[in-house]
Amino acid sequence: MVRIFGSRKCLEYDAYPESPIRVERSYKLLKENYEIHEPCPCDESEVLLAHGELFAEKLKNYSPSIFDLDSPPVPGIYEYALLSAGGALSALDSADERSFSLMRPPGHHVGRNFLGGFCYLNNIAIAIRKSMAKFDRAAIVDFDCHHGNGTQDIFLGDSRVLYVSLHQYGIYPGTGYVSEENCRNYPLRSGTGEEEYMSTLAKALEEVKKFDPQIVGVSAGFDIYRGDPITSLSLEIGSFKRIGEAIRDLGLPAFAVLEGGYSSEFPLCVEAFLEGLS
């Protein structure tokens, strides 16, 4: 069974539509079948694995120069971000049994030196960089509806890491239209349904297999669901089980971290993904 990491502390702040309600409802649902483990905060030195020292200092001290409307200077956000990154690191440590960090804030829009998209630290990037102390090659599979521009910024040109992203074309952040070096992008048209999506995912995972990584990190975005209020792909709840199964069938240590997903059915989407990953 997938090992889940979560903390009620991450429910203490609000940032619509990336609200605590979606995660709180997921905790309630998953507790029926899973134990949820409390993570430890990421160490500040670990932040520097993926981010610049000046950026980290500005984030810590709420410097207005790095915040924007999508990532405002929420009181205590640096501490919440450290805890969310710590969830990713805890999930990394449990990758052999497969794991999931159900924490917020999300992270894949944060680059080495910039914020964006409700994100403050790049959780998946910090964890993957930490994994490089043990592994020679790692892959990141990002199935959030939005392109992980921050993750691409951090890893572009790093031959040890393959980044693959499936995302909707023409929406925020307006990147990921073409593949670049080790970053393989699969933009999808509005209305893309399950069969076309799964066919594209199969191509992306073939790239992962060819790369032959020793570990896979997953940016899990549940805003590809047809009922999501801010996107327009057309996947069903059951689609997430198939996505989880496809990642499981790689036969590699794997861990996932939460990115987006804002529909009322969010907890059921998460549950289906975990069932497949199991």
* Number of distinct beta strands: 8
Assembly of the depicted chains: single chain
Q: Give the overall shape, derived from the CA principal axes.
A: globular
How widely separated are the two ends? 5 Å
Strand ordering within the main sheet: 2-1-3-8-7-4-5-6
Strand percentage: 5-15%
The count of helical stretches stands at: 9
Mean pLDDT: 97
Main beta-sheet strand count, sense and barrel state: 8 strands, parallel
List the helices and strands and how they pair.
Layout: E1 3-5, H1 20-30, E2 36-37, H2 44-47, H3 53-60, H4 77-93, E3 99-101, H5 123-131, E4 138-142, H6 149-155, E5 161-168, E6 183-188, H7 194-211, E7 215-220, H8 237-248, E8 254-258, H9 266-277
Parallel strand pairs: 1-2, 1-3, 3-8, 4-5, 4-7, 5-6, 7-8
Describe it:
This protein has 278 residues and is α/β, with parallel strands linked by helices. It contains nine helices and eight strands. The protein has helices spanning 20-30, 44-47, 53-60, 77-93, 123-131, 149-155, 194-211, 237-248, 266-277, and strands at 3-5, 36-37, 99-101, 138-142, 161-168, 183-188, 215-220, 254-258. An eight-stranded parallel β-sheet has the order 2-1-3-8-7-4-5-6, sandwiched between helices. Helix 1 (20-30) packs across helix 9 (266-277). The termini are close together. 51% of the residues are buried.
Q: What is this structure, in a nutshell?
A:
The chain is α/β, with parallel strands linked by helices and 278 residues long. It is built from 9 helices and 8 strands. The chain has an 8-stranded parallel sheet with strand order 2-1-3-8-7-4-5-6, sandwiched between helices.
